[in-house]
Write a structure and sequence with these properties.
Belongs to the E2F/DP family. Keywords: Activator, Cell cycle, DNA-binding, Nucleus, Repressor, Transcription, Transcription regulation. The chain is of the alpha+beta class. The protein has a domain at 116-211 and 250-332: Arc Repressor Mutant, subunit A (Orthogonal Bundle). Helix content is 48%, strand content 6%. Strand 11 (672-675) and strand 12 form a beta hairpin. The chain binds a DNA duplex through helix 9 and helix 15.
DNA sequence: CGATCCCGCCACATT
DNA sequence: AATGTGGCGGGATCG
């Protein structure tokens, strides 16, 4: 196209030649000449100029119209430059010129293409999220500006925000140093703490009135202001800069604003901040007084900041329905809890990862690195201390996906499910014994989706709920009650575990691992990571639906994510069907002390890293969406089924139970491996017990011991969000806890929790519960071996072929459900399965080649919208 | 028509 | 003074 234009332009241009802004031209890459022979100005050389330059030249020369067009084009070029269109000939255009031209141009250039958010993504794509420490990446503003085809001014907008989060630091004039997200969590934590100080605790920014949320800041703000000034908070970290002088300038208002803005999110309970509120707060004025103009300006800046944060995957745009109507707002989808503290559980939501492509290399590495780094291992784990290491970071990928659309649907579904679940749950919960249902929550993301539509307080609810579930710890204790009726889906959604049950549910997110005995676990981070990329969307899916609160039956698991548990070969089928639900793991053992530990924030344990990766994935809305749907339906059906099933303990959650049993049986290994889901898997995570068979499974990647297996799958999504819990391992290794007790779980959670969010995963020790009974529906629960076997096979397959559907299915928790209730299957299965399948695939792949997977699948996946995938999957499932 | 937010002028800071 | 930074808000575009 450009070509065309150029050609057209050429004539004119040459003549004028004016000055054009060469300045801008800079370093563009030289293009091929193909096109343009146009003589650029003086220099005949076609090539030399970069596309941009040419354009500019032309533009200047050209009429205004032309300019615009040109500009637009320019934008593209940098990015894609080459698309030469071929035809210069395309007469049509030429002839038509104007009209035609316009069209073209219109297409391209839209204003959005130049948006700061997009620009920021491009910018971020150039650097690895987690650069090796060894490499120091310096960023030249001029260079970047030219490469990206924008004026330097725009780069400042991006860099200033990034700097506020310490992703970059200014080293010299025109030079910035890229740090990546390694310290992001730390920075966020600081901001959160600073925010608390300033703003006071959790604010109540909003209160949601029942359904609608409102945010009121009013008063709360007040305080903020005072402090706000202080930059110290913000930057305390930034030392360098500081040089004294620094303060003075107006400085950095953008930087400061950015930090404050982030703080608002971190302090907010709902994690949603409306623009106007933020603007008011940031303005310092507490009151409305502010002049309108000032307010307006502030809002403008906030948009700039929000675009960058959105690109970073830390927030996403949502709308809040208030009294007056809907207001633009942003929801925090980044990590919420930082190791030390507990905040709210959920935090992230979905992010899509559109970017992946962009980042490509970078991403992978990052992820990988991340994974590698961390492991979330909880070493101590079970024993009380939990030393977990991991940092968790959530990384978010970039949001952006369009896909969200579907979310709504999901949301609605979820909601309904949630409601149902809730009821059930409530009922279930009643039993005190059970602590709470667990919910998995996978869903944080969901809420997002929902949010808009649902006024209800989904968010709030969710958050609260989640915590409650968990067991432990401190995590979130706050919220405990599940219940709000209103609570939206999320609550429900999460899979709750039943108290007694021995299972754990994990959210779908990707990763985590647990270790029972082992401390280390291995996490396979890499895979997970990979998963993120590829599967992100999918992953989340699993998480969602948590609703089931059912008691013991596997349902729980199922609900949100799909857990899978089973897997026998034969079983596979079954399993597959089950799919969606999150898995629950059952871990029989108990952990002894762990709980306590858990209670603590778990700073240590979390597997941050993995999480991070996951988060990314998780975050993506898309994923969540998917999850929701899947989960939802299933849930419902499940519920019913479950209910019925509940009766039969045995059948129901096969996977889980047996697992648990197995675990019980095998006490040995407490360890589990966690495998992150890869993209495909997204939802599920697998846990393997260390013990088992020998190498049955070897994960490709992982070093871990191969485990044989008894694995548990956990939905990845959930995990990400939530802290995982590890059950104590199994058996005895740890101290034996009473079976029933949660302790084990707790402990597990604990560690996990630290990580992530609040949501916890639970693992119940339960073995107790039904091990016998329930034992897994799927196959034989009883036989521990099976599981192992199953898994292994699966794994093997996965590795080998990865594709296997069936295997996959098996793994998933879902299966469990199905097993229990065949009837239900139909519904659920579909939805579920898909997920499962994917998950499996991915997983396996991940195991084998995580990376490869990503690429392959990821791409594919990406291509297809999540929805599509689902559909596809679902279709498949039927068989 | 309100929400977004691109664009780039221009002031202030730094060199 | 030149150049780097970045506040700021007009007004175009989007939805």
């Amino acid at each position: 196209e450009n070509i065309f234009d150029r050609s057209r332009m050429a004539p004119k241009t040459p003549i004028k030649n004016e000055p054009v802004d060469l300045s801008k031209q800079k370093g563009c890459t030289p293009e091929r000449n193909p096109i343009t022979p146009v003589k650029l100005v003086d220099r005949p050389q076609p090539d030399p100029w970069t596309p941009t330059a040419n354009l500019k030249m032309l533009v200047s020369a050209a009429s205004p119209d032309m300019r615009d067009r040109e500009k637009k084009k320019e934008l593209f070029r940098p990015i894609e430059n080459s698309e030469q269109s071929d035809t210069p000939d395309s007469l049509p255009y030429d002839t038509v010129d104007d009209s035609t031209v316009d069209e073209f141009e219109k297409q391209r250039p839209s204003r959005k293409q130049k948006s700061l958010g997009l620009l920021c993504q491009k910018f971020l794509a150039r650097y690895p999220s987690y650069p090796l420490s060894t490499e120091k990446t310096t960023i030249s503003l001029d260079e970047v500006a030219s490469i990206l085809g924008v004026e330097r001014r725009r780069i400042y907008d991006i860099v200033n925000v990034l700097e506020s989060l310490h992703l970059v630091s200014r080293v010299a004039k025109n030079q910035y140093c890229w740090h990546g997200r390694h310290n992001l969590n730390q920075t966020l934590k600081m901001l959160q703490e600073a925010g608390k100080l300033q703003y006071g605790e959790p604010m109540i920014f909003f209160q949601h009135k029942e359904q609608d949320l409102e945010y009121k800041f009013g008063e709360q703000k007040k305080e903020t202001i005072p402090n706000s000034q202080d930059r110290p908070l913000l930057d305390s970290s930034e030392p360098d800069c500081t040089s004294a002088s620094a303060n003075s300038r107006k400085d950095k208002s953008l930087r400061i604003m950015s930090q404050k803005f982030v703080m608002l999110f971190l302090v907010s309970k709902t994690k949603i901040v409306t623009l106007d509120i933020a603007a008011k707060i940031l303005i310092e004025e507490t009151q409305d007084t502010v002049d309108h103009s000032k307010f307006k300006t502030k809002v403008r800046r906030l948009y700039d900041i929000a675009n960058v944060l959105t690109s970073l995957g830390l927030i996403k745009k949502v709308h809040v329905t208030e009294e007056r109507g809907r207001k633009p707002a942003f929801k925090w989808i980044g990590p919420v809890e930082f190791p030390g503290k507990t905040d709210e559980p959920r935090g992230h939501s979905p992010t899509s990862d559109p970017l992946p492509g962009m980042q490509r290399g970078a991403c992978d590495p990052c992820k990988i690195s991340a994974t590698g780094k961390q492991k979330f291992t909880c070493n101590a784990s079970f024993n009380g201390a939990q030393p977990c290491e991991g940092t968790r970071r959530k990384v978010s990928s970039e949001p952006n996906s369009p896909r969200q659309e579907r979310q709504d649907e999901y949301c609605s579904k979820m909601i309904s499910l949630a409601a149902v679940c809730r009821q059930k749950i409530e009922e279930d919960t009643r039993n005190p014994s059970i602590t709470s249902p667990l919910s998995l929550l996978s869903i944080p993301g969901e809420s997002d989706f929902c949010v808009n539509p649902l006024p209800q307080a989904v968010f709030p609810v969710v958050q609260a709920d989640v915590p409650s579930l968990s067991l432990s710890d401190g995590v979130s204790s706050q919220a405990l009650q599940p219940p709000t009726p209103a609570a939206s889906t999320t609550e429900n959604g999460k899979p709750t575990l039943l108290p007694n049950q021995p299972f754990l549910c994990f959210p779908s997110s990707s990763l985590f691992m647990l270790c029972g005995g082992l401390q280390e676990n291995n996490s396979r981070e890499t895979q997970p990571t990979a998963g993120d990329v590829g599967s992100r969307s999918t992953e989340t899916q699993a998480a969602l639906p948590p609703a089931t609160s059912q008691k013991r039956s596997s349902h729980q698991c199922a609900s949100p994510s799909v857990p899978v548990g089973n897997e026998e070969p034969a079983a596979k089928k079954q399993t597959m069907e089950q799919s969606d639900v999150p898995l629950s793991l059952a871990v029989p053992k108990k952990p002894s002390e762990s709980h306590k530990a858990e209670s603590t924030p778990g700073s240590g344990c979390t597997p941050a890293e993995h999480l991070e990766a996951f988060h990314l994935d998780l975050t993506s809305p898309v994923a969540s969406e998917g999850a929701d749907k899947e989960s939802t339906k299933p849930l419902e059906s499940q519920k019913q089924e479950k209910w019925s099933q509940n009766k039969d303990p045995d059948e129901p959650s096969p996977g889980k139970e047996h697992i648990s049993k197995e675990n019980a049986n095998q006490p040995f290994l407490p360890q589990y491996l966690y495998v992150q889901p890869t993209a495909g898997l997204s939802s599920f995570n697998f846990l393997f017990s260390a013990n088992q068979a020998p190498g049955a499974i070897s994960l490709a990647a992982s070093p871990l011991p191969s485990l044989s297996v008894p694995c548990v799958m956990v939905p990845s999504a959930a995990l990400a969000s939530f802290p995982l819990v590890c059950s104590p391992a199994v058996t005895s290794t740890l101290s034996p806890v009473p079976d029933g007790s949660f302790s084990a779980a707790t402990s597990m959670n604990f560690s996990m929790s630290g990580l992530t969010s609040t949501r916890p995963v639970f693992i119940g020790t339960t073995a107790v519960v039904t091990p016998k009974v329930s034992p897994v529906p799927s196959v034989d629960p009883q036989q521990p071996s099976h599981p192992a076997l199953h898994l292994s096979p699966v794994l093997a397959r996965s590795c080998g072929a990865v594709k296997l559907d069936s295997p996959v299915c098996m793994g998933h928790p879902v299966t469990l459900l199905k097993l229990q209730q065949p009837s239900s299957t139909p519904l659920t299965p579909k939805s579920i399965r898909p997920a499962c399948h994917e998950a499996f695939f991915k997983t396996p792949g991940s195991l084998g080649d995580p990376i490869a997977w990503k690429k392959n699948e990821g791409n594919q996946i990406r291509n297809a919208s999540s929805v599509q995938r689902r559909l596809e999957i679902s279709s498949t499932s039927p068989d």
